[in-house]
């Protein structure tokens, strides 16, 4: 239900349902957290998304996966905080894949930050030089 609400733009309903789930002592799993972070991303709720992300490990004992990190980079960078998103990426404790860099590159395109986009492109080519998507976005 949370994913369905989030995908169809009913962000407040998704968050409300998540909060209701918590109040009933139902512990979320890693998929639930991806859905909640995605809902925050769709609504531009950066502060709330960061709070949920930080609660994952500390309160719910969920180790963030690449999906969670991608949601966070997407959330932060879509809000125009591109340098903060790059810093978030550089502090990630897991091995990076192209998806996280593609989130940042997409936001560079949205916010017309060509300089950072070129830097991100270099990281993407280190991972897979044959992928044409970075060329298209840049």
Q: What are the defining features of this structure?
A:
2 domains; 138 residues; mainly alpha; 9 helices; 72% helix; elongated
Q: What's the helix count?
A: 9
Give a count of the beta strands, DSSP E runs of length 2 or more.
0
Distance between the termini: 36 Å
Q: How big a fraction of the residues is strand? A: under 5%
How many domains make up the coordinates? Answer: 2
Order of helices and strands: HHHHHHHHH
Kindly name the structural category.
mainly alpha
Query: Uncertain regions: pLDDT < 50 for 5+ in a row?
Result: none
- Overall pLDDT confidence: 91
Helix percent reads over 70%
Radius of gyration: 16 Å
Any idea what the shape is? Answer: elongated
Largest pleated sheet: none
What does this entry show, briefly?
By secondary structure, the chain is mostly helical.
Describe the structure.
It contains nine helices and no strands. It starts with a helix and ends with a helix. Helix 2 packs antiparallel against helix 3, helix 3 packs antiparallel against helix 4 and helix 5 packs antiparallel against helix 6. Helix content is 72%, strand content 0%. The chain has 138 residues and is mainly α. It has two domains: 64 residues; 73 residues. The mean pLDDT is 91. It is elongated.
Question: Any chance you could write out the topology, listing elements then pairs?
Answer:
Blueprint: H1 2-7, H2 11-23, H3 30-43, H4 46-58, H5 66-78, H6 82-90, H7 98-110, H8 114-127, H9 133-137
Helix pairs in contact: 2-3, 3-4, 3-5, 4-5, 5-6, 5-7, 6-7, 7-8
């Amino acid at each position: 239900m949370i994913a369905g609400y989030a995908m169809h733009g009913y962000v407040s309903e998704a968050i409300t349902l998540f909060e209701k789930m918590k109040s009933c002592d139902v512990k979320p799993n890693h998929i639930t957290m991806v859905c909640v972070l995605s809902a925050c991303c769709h609504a531009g709720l950066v502060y709330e998304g960061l709070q949920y992300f930080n609660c994952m490990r500390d309160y719910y004992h969920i180790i963030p996966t690449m999906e969670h990190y991608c949601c966070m980079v997407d959330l932060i960078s879509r809000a125009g905080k591109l340098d903060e998103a790059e810093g978030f990426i550089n502090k990630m404790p897991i091995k990076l894949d192209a998806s996280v860099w593609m989130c940042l590159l997409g936001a560079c395109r949205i916010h017309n930050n060509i300089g950072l986009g070129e830097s991100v492109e270099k990281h993407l080519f280190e991972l897979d030089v044959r992928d044409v998507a970075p060329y298209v976005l840049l």
